[in-house]
């Protein structure tokens, strides 16, 4: 048994681009089991000039998403790295869509709940149509950077997850 077999597993609620299996498999280098769930008390926002979503507490909010089941410490570290300092990983309670069972999971909450760049509601299907291809390029650059930083900072990677200036 290797040490990775013994590491604790993590369940992570995802609500944005990480609902897309091809994004998750690229970032985590595997395809974890997923389960549909809802997170109450939060809203999923668009971010001005960014290709990804964020969530923030909202009294009457409800977010449909997925739980990535049984992630290793190394996989959780990959998510932490790609999310960066703009997000805070928090433990929340979700409700499984199929069984209504409650489950404690981790999720990434936007650190600045008063950020003026948050607006509207992020739409997964629209993101897939308009931004997934560019986001996948950024995710590939992230995995390349993680394997071989070659003197580049995380900030150089971050420029790839921003929209083109002419895209609204």
TrEMBL record:
CDD domains: GGCT_like (cd06661). Belongs to the gamma-glutamylcyclotransferase family. One of its GO terms (molecular function) is acyltransferase activity. InterPro entries: AIG2-like, AIG2-like_dom, GGCT-like, GGCT-like_sf. Keywords: Acyltransferase, Transferase. The gene is LOC108807403. Residues 147-168 are annotated as: Disordered. This is Putative gamma-glutamylcyclotransferase. The keyword Metal-binding does not apply. The keyword Acyltransferase applies. Putative gamma-glutamylcyclotransferase. SUPFAM superfamilies: Gamma-glutamyl cyclotransferase-like. Gene3D superfamilies: 6.10.250.210, Gamma-glutamyl cyclotransferase-like. Residues 12-123 form the Gamma-glutamylcyclotransferase AIG2-like domain. It comes from Raphanus sativus. It comes from the Eukaryota.
